[in-house]
Amino acid sequence: MRIRMNSLLNILLPMCLLGFTGAYLVYFNRIFNENTRWIFFIGIFTFLILRKSLLRFWDPVLVLIISVYLIWCFLTSFWSNVYILSLSKSAMLSLIIITMVTAGIEWVKTRSWENSINYIGLLAYIAFFAAFFGKFEGMAASSIPGTPYRGAFVTGTNMLGFYMAASFPFFLWKAYQ
């Protein structure tokens, strides 16, 4: 049995995206949690290594921008109280950024411009339903002014806001089409 590499990317990229964001989705955090996210990440990292395309399509401007950001992340680790922990987090962030940007480049390379952001679709629909079926936090939320709104599937208001911001380009593009 032969598996097409593009079909493997169709599964790995949305699953890796959900792996990192799903820990904060109430009904999905049994599958996508703080530990299992690394399984999805290792899967997409291995896929890119086997395709020999981890840094193949990076242009100098992109390398400069991401390098400046990653150097800044590493340098901010030194004024942390536990700088070894911050340095290890910066190293993992660097690996994640390089991998996910490369996966995005591979995704766009094999698709038309009309379908270039479809990998966000699964997260976008989950975020939409989380916001639509959301609720207010607190016991007597309807009687307390200023009670924060949170989504039905999301563990906090900030994460719901992040999901809505990350989903907006997908819905805007679909409305444009």
Structure notes:
With 177 residues, the protein is mainly alpha-helical. It folds into 2 domains: 1-110, no CATH class; 112-177, no CATH class. It is 60% helix and 2% strand. It contains 6 helices and 2 strands. The protein has a two-stranded antiparallel sheet. The longest helix has 27 residues, at 83-109. The protein is globular. The relative contact order is 0.12. Residues 136-142 have low confidence and may be disordered.
Write the layout of secondary structure elements.
Blueprint: H1 5-21, H2 37-50, H3 60-76, H4 83-109, H5 121-132, E1 135-136, E2 149-150, H6 157-176
Antiparallel strand pairs: 1-2
Structure described in brief:
The protein has 177 residues and is mostly helical. 60% of the residues lie in helices and 2% in strands. It has 2 domains: 110 residues, no CATH class; 66 residues, no CATH class.
| Overall average pLDDT | 80
Using the CA coordinates, give the radius of gyration: 19 Å
Task: List low-pLDDT spans.
Answer: 136-142
**Helix and strand element order:** HHHHHEEH
The description of the largest β-sheet is: 2 strands, antiparallel
Strand order of the largest sheet: 1-2
How much helix is in the residues? Answer: 55-70%
Number of domains: 2
Proportion of beta-strand residues: under 5%
